Amino acid sequence: MGREMMFGEAIAVAITEEMQRDSSVVFYGQNMAMTDRDPYVRKFGKDRVRITPISETAEMGIAVGAAMTGLRPIVELYMSEFMLVAFDEVINEAPRMRYMSGGQVKVPLVFKAGFGFAAGWAAQHSNSILNTMMGIPGLKLVVPSTSADAKGMMKSAIRDDNPVVYLHHYMLTLDKSEVPDGDYLVPLGVADVKRAGTDVTIVATAWMVKKSLAAAEMLAKEGISAEVVDPRTLAPLDVDTIVQSVRKTGRLVLVDQAPRQSSAAAVIAGEVAEHGFRYLKAPVKMVTAMDTSVPYSAPMESYVLPSEERIVSAVKSVLAAQAAAV
Fold first, then answer.
1. Does pLDDT of 320 surpass 60?
2. Is 56 a catalytic residue?
3. 168 is annotated as an active-site residue
C-alpha cells in the first residue's frame, strides 16, 4: 500500500523519517531555520537544523568535517550551479578521504540540490551538469525521476557511508505519484525499467524520463513498442540493466537535458558500445540539448531542450536505419 505524494514532498518525508530514525543526521542550508516556526526546527531543534552563512565553500566544507567526526549531514544547496563555487569539496575532498585513510575515515554526507530549472531561469540556472560528477572515485550520484524513487533514494543516500550528490529536477517538484508506505528504500546503483517494450530502448534521467514516457505513449499509437530505462543512479551506473534492454530491443536512443558533449548520455553510449555493440541493429541515437546556454525566452528554451517530438523522431530514425540496412 502507499499514497500519492508530490516529488518534493517525498524528499521532505524521507529526510524527516531519517532524522527521526537517526540522531546523527543533521540538516542545514542558507535559507533554513530562519524562524522558530520552521517545520524542521520545530521537530528537531536548532542543534540539528541550522542556517548557514552565504558561502557554499563553508557549507560543504563543514559537511566534510562533520561527516568525518560521526555525523550524517544533509546540505541543502538549492541549485546545482551553486555547487560549482565549492567544487573542490565535491570532487577532491569528500570522495577521497576514505581512500586516503585506508578506509578508516567514512564521509557519510548528502549534497542536495535542484537542477535543470527549465522555466525561464535562463543561462545560469537551467543547466544539467551531471556528467561533471560521474566517474569521480568515491562519489555517488543520484538522480530520481518519480516520487517513490525520490523518497527511497534519499533514505538510501543518507544511510550510505560515502558522499552522495542527490540531484532533484526542478520541473518534477509538483509531480504526483504513489509512494509505498513504511521504511521504503531504493538501492543505489540499480536502474529501473519504467516501461517495458520490444522495439527500442530509451534511456533517460530525471525530467527526461517523463518526456520519454510521453514519447513512448505517442509511439505506441503507431505500433512501436519502446522500453524506457531510468538509470536512477549515474554513479555507480547500472550498465548491465541497460545492456540487457538493448539485447532485447536491438536499438538505443539516449535522452539527456545536457548538451551532447557534456552529457551523461555520452558516457552511457560509450558503455553500450563496449558491452552491447553486438546487440545493436542500428546506430545509437542521442537526443540532447543544443550546444548553447539555455535562453530566457520560453519559445527559445523549448527549442533548445529535448522534446517528446524529438524523441519520437529519434526512435523512428533508428528503426528506419535498420530497415535501410536490411
1. yes
2. yes
3. no
